[in-house]
Specification:
This is LBP_cg2779 family protein. This protein has 68 residues and is mostly helical. Helices cover 69% and strands 0% of the residues. The longest helix is centred in the first third of the chain and has 19 residues, at 3-21.
Length: 68
């Protein structure tokens, strides 16, 4: 899978997660400790995220507490 395809898949994963959990970008940023700018740029495919950013977002998405 190319880098662009990976970024597209990850941005869709974030969008689907937010829809499923009714989260805004700001809520996602606060809870995952990733800046809202990074989240916007990843979703818009303007930024290839650093591995630490990907790890933080994936960790949050995999272990999201109820209500957050």
């Amino acid at each position: 899978m190319s880098e662009k395809e990976q970024l597209n898949a990850f941005s869709r994963e974030i969008i689907d997660f937010q829809r499923k959990n009714n989260l805004t970008d700001t809520e996602m940023a606060l809870n995952s400790h990733v800046s809202v700018e990074h989240i916007h740029n990843i979703k818009a495919m303007r930024e290839n995220p650093d591995p630490t950013v990907v790890a933080s977002l994936r960790d949050y998405m995999e272990h999201k507490p109820k209500g957050k």
